[in-house]
Structures are given as C-alpha cells and as structure tokens.
Amino acid sequence: MSQPVLTDQARRALLARIPSQPGVYRMLDAEGAVLYVGKAKELKRRVSSYFSRSLNHRLQVMVARIADIQITVTRTEGEALLLEADLIKSHQPRFNVLLRDDKSYPFIYLSTQDAFPRLAFYRGSRKGKGRYFGPYPSASAVRETLQLLQKIFPIRQCRDSFFRNRSRPCLQYQIKRCTAPCVGLITEQEYAEDVARSIKFLDGRTDEVIRELGERMDEAAQALEFERAAVLRDQIATLGRIQQRQYVTASGGDLDILACATEGGVHCVQVFFIRAGHNLGNKSFFPKAPLEATPATVMAGFLTQFYADKPIPPELLVSHAPDELEFLETAFAERAGRRVAISHRLRGERAQWLKMAQSNAELSLQSRLGSRAGYNQRLEALRELLGLDEQPGRMECFDISHTQGELTVASCVVFDAEGQRKSDYRRFNIDGIAPGDDYAAMAQALGRRYKRIKDGEVPVPDILFIDGGRGQLNAAIGILEELGIQGVRLVGVAKGPDRKPGAEQLWQPHQRHAIIAPADSPAMHLIQQIRDEAHRFAITGHRQRRDKARRTSVLEGIPGVGAKRRASLLRAFGGLRGLRRASAEDIARVDGISAALAEQIHQAVNQDLGG
Q: What's the CA gap between 413 and 406, in Å, rounded?
C-alpha cells in the first residue's frame, strides 16, 4: 500500500473546515482529477469516516490517493442527490458506480389542446401542453402500445402537417386504424369519446373502459345497430386480452422492481416498470463499478443516477438494500413531493415479483458475458455514430435489384442484438412500375413490408437502412408517413464519390450534410455488412426470378426478339402485362420493331393468355 498523499496535518485542516450540513463531496488526486463523488446528510461525519474506520481494499486505495477534498453545501438532501448525479455524469470518477444512461425515456404524448388530438411517440422535455403517459422502458414498448390503441380506439397518429393538408382519407382510414377527422368523416364529439377512452386505458382504468363499452354495446343492440354492437364487442374482447396479459397486481399502483446480479466484475441491474398495476416492460442495465463493489453499493449508485432525471414511483422493490437507504428515501420523497418507499424484505406475491426480476437479471448477465464482444463493439459504435439513446435492438435494410429495369426484386434483411436474423428475411417481386424506377420499387417494397408491421405481424425496427441517397430516403419517409409508423430511425447508405467501399455517406431525414465516418470505423463495418447482405439477398432473388422468367417468357420464343429488344419492349410498356394490353400499332412505335414483327409479338403475347 502506497503512503497517503495527504499528511495528517493537512487532513486535519481539511476536516476542520467541513460543515455539518447536507451536501456533496469530491475526492481529488494530486493532478486534480476527481476520484470519487459522494453525498451526505452530514458532510463532516461522512467525510471524517473515511479516515477513522476500517476500510475495504478499494477504499484504502482511493484514500491513499486523496490530495484534496472539495465540498458543496446544499439546502436539502434532495438537492445533494441531484448534484451528486450530475457530477458523476460529468466527471466519471473511477471509484464510483457509473451508469451509462444518458437517454431520455420515451413517453406517449396526447395533444389534448387540439380539436382532434394526436397520439404520438415522444421523447424529451415534458413542459409543453398536452398529456404525457409513461415513462416506458423502450421505444418498442411505446410502439406496441400505440399499435394496440390504434386497433381499439382509432385516434390519429399522423403529424399535424400531414393532417392539415389532406383532401381525402389516407391509408390509415382504409385499414380501419383512423376515423379520418382530417376530412370530416367523424364529429368532434365522437372523436372526443375515443380520446377519453384512450386516456382511461393509458391511466390504467381498463375496467372502467370495458364497463362503459359494455353499456354502449347493449344500447346499440337494443337499437338494432348490430354492426355498431359488433365493433364494440370486438373492442371489449381486445381490451380483455390486453388486461389479462399485462395485469400484475389487483391493487394497481405504480412501482419499479429492481434486481442486481454480479459475476466476474460485471454487474447487471434489471428494472421492471409497473404503472397502474400494468407491466410496461423491463430493461437491463450494465453499470460500471469498481471490482470489489458489492450488490448493495451497485444498487445505491444505480438508484442515485437512474432517478436523477426521471419520475420516481411511490415504491421501489429492490433485491439488495442500498447503502444509505434512509438518505435515498428522504431525497426521493423531496424530489417527488410525496413519500417514496424502498422495500427489500418482501413476502408473498411481491417476493415472487422480485424473484422474477432477479432471474431476468441473472439471465441478462449470462447473455452479456457470453455474447460476441466484437459485434457488441460495432453496435455500440453505431449507437454513438448515429447519436442513438441506446443500442439498436432490431435493424432492417432494403435493396433493389433488376436488369435494365426487368424483373425487379426488393430485399429486406434483418439484424438484431445477436446478429443476422435470417428467418425474418423477405423478398418482394416488384410489378406495375416504370422499368428502372428504383424510387417506386423502394416505395412498393416498404409499403408492403410496413403494412404488415402496422398490422402487428412483424416487429417495428429501431433502424431502417435504405441502400441509396436522398431520393430513396424520401421515398421511405413518404411511405412511413402514410402508414403512420413512428419511432424508426431512417438512414440512407449512399456510395461515395468514387463508389469505393469505405467511402459511404449516411443520410438522415432533415439533415443538410451526410455523415462520413472513417473507413476503419466499427460502425461503418457493421453498416457495410448489413448493406452487403441486403444486396446479396436482392441479387440472388432477382437471378432466381430472371431464370424462371427466361425459362417461360413468351418473348424468348419469337424470332428476331433478342435480349436488347425484350428489354426495350418491357421498358416501354412496364412489363409483360402492359405489353399484352398494347395494340400492334403501339408495339411498332418502339425503336427497332417493324410492323411485321410487332404483329408477331402482339399475336404471341395474346396467345400466351389463351385468347
């Protein structure tokens, strides 16, 4: 053990000037770097304890390096809690538990100030007008809830600019996910009823909604409005299924369940979010902590930083009693404006919930320890490059392949936290577009894919990569806007000026300049892998379609119609379907096609129909 930097005389002088008030202390080394940040109800007693009691090895190492101690007095313990979290975040001291959780958690936003309120995915400050529901543990939890709500109570989810400029109902109305208030197909009063029910559902008052819908169903049946009664019946059934799946406790209420698992110097804290008695989902966190940190120390550090900028529920169920439990309860109560209980000795049903959380924490920890470090590194680099709040859990990439506009095929490949997810790959045969129109091909593929996502058949991705620049990106923006898909990060992957690998440009919506990362960037390596996989899958699909068409194409049996003329014909008429609708005179207008050959082609393609 090295000799302490502070002499006894200097230490006594430092301790003499520390007051007995609440506040925050910072331990500094000889270079002025922050070693540790702590909070205390009584600063003098807490700081003095580091020099007057038996310490574990970690604290002995830290104390031996202390050259100075700086303090900040606060008025209350709650202020000390917030200041400590801010200082830990800014200085990242090596002896503190460090939580990489800079994200703002997603909410569901309802614009109650509008005549026809909008439901939307929201992340950020909650100071604006309207209602905010949450927080939710992830973007996918918000998207799932919004999809469920849209099926039950078709409140609009489109942006205001889209809503104000409609002259006819959009696709959402056609698939019964919206009542088209934009063109006056529902009254403000009827719309307000759906809004009120949505609020009750999000507030956890599902029983009240079901009871109200049941009364309306009986009224409709008595009035012989059987179609209306059937709609209400389906809404009640859907709500019942959701309630069965999500309900946690008969007593309702808000609480978080937190469990900590530790192995080999790696720590995992699993958090379950319970609001109004419903499980909104769970999330794993992997805080960085000194090697000898105990679960109690990790839990204390996690609670301090995690709830520094988030709403605190009235009760926290924890697997390990955190250090300074009473201090945390007092500080949290001050911040929340009501009592906050941190409970760890549990019995009965609550003990089972905690056991469930502990099991999830251990599973997540084992998965983390056994995961491929290289892939995680690339995911983390991608998160940083795109400025994401968290590592993406699901990524999709689309590509288009054709030969001179003929037999276009679009591909969709899927990557998740573990890598390729080949079982979710899909191909789309593209028809009915102008040959070579990659924008229209991309729009058709995205429309078909994301309509399935809208119907809940496929999960919504966190990132959607498009192989192409601004044009393809704009096509994707239009489709997602039309379908009302929210919370998906769109990225166009365009080839660089010389079309060389490693010089790709990344385009995002509403950005004037592309992102250009170094060729050796782990994030770009991952993007290239995903893009190349989409390209390979599209080319393979196109070749299969082309080979099949060549084996059966009627044009190949016509003397004088070679590959070049076939391509010209298909390009001129948008494919065989358009060619069949054309007259012999129309066909003769194509360059290189004589009147006699046009007549042959016309007869051949129509004989192929059996006419």
A: 22
| Helix, strand, or coil (residue 489) | strand
Burial (CB < 10 A; 0-12, 13-18, 19+), residue 390, is middle
The predicted structure's pLDDT at residue 248:
47
pLDDT single digits (tens) 249-264: 435 578 899 999 988 6
Is residue 484 within 8 Å of residue 172, measured between CB atoms? Answer: yes
CA count, 13 A, side-chain hemisphere, 499: 2
User: Cα–Cα distance between 87 and 492 in angstroms, integer?
Assistant: 38
Q: Where are the alpha helices (DSSP H) in 310-432?
A: 325-336, 348-370, 373-386
Please state whether beta strands 255-263 and 315-318 pair in parallel, antiparallel, or not at all (unpaired): parallel
Nearest CA to 97 among 262, 257, 255, 256?
Answer: 262
Beta-strand pair 489-494/463-467: parallel
Residue-wise burial string across 362-372, b where 16 or more C-beta atoms lie within 10 A, e elsewhere: bebbeebeeee
Secondary structure E strands in 404-531: 406-416, 419-420, 426-429, 463-467, 489-494, 505-507
Of 89, 85, 550, which is closest to residue 328 (Cα–Cα)?
85
| Tokens linked to 573 | 């008429």
Instruction: Look at residue 373 in the predicted model and tell me its pLDDT.
Output: 62
d(CA 174, CA 171): 5
Angle between helix 77-91 and helix 325-336 axes, rounded to 10 deg: 100
Q: Which residues sit opposite 317 in a β-bridge?
A: 257, 343
The pair of three-digit structure tokens given for residue 95, joined into one six-digit string: 């002896």
Rounded Cα–Cα distance for residues 90 and 105 (Å): 20
Residues in the chain: 611
Residue 418 has a CB neighbour count (10 Å cut-off) of: 10
Placement of tokens 């009827």 in the chain: 190
**522-552 vs 373-386: helix axis angle to the nearest 10?**
100
Handedness of CA 491, 493, 496, 501 (dihedral sign): positive
Q: What token pair was written down for 449?
A: 């894919």
Taking only the tens place, the pLDDT of each residue in 307-349 is 887 888 999 999 999 988 888 999 899 888 899 999 998 888 8
- Residue 342, H or E segment: strand 341-343
pLDDT < 50 regions, the chain: 1, 244-250, 551-552, 608-611
Q: What are phi and psi of 510, to 5 degrees?
A: 65, 20
Beta strand extents in 86-210 (DSSP E only): 107-110, 119-122, 131-133
Under DSSP, the state recorded for 473 is H
Distance from C-alpha of 350 to C-alpha of 137, rounded to nearest angstrom: 20
Cα 153–156–162 angle (5° rounding)? 170
Residue 242 — left, alpha, or beta (φ > 0 → left; ψ -120 to 50 → alpha)?
A: alpha
Rounded-to-integer distance, Cα 206 and Cα 306, Å = 29
CA 416 to CA 396: how far, in whole Å?
Answer: 9
Q: Which residue has the tokens 């580091």?
A: 50
Place of tokens 């703002």: 104
Give the separation between CA 345 and CA 462, rounded to whole angstroms: 38
Contact 531, 467 (CB under 8 A): yes
Can you tell me the distance from the alpha carbon of 167 to that of 173, in angstroms, rounded to the nearest whole number? 13
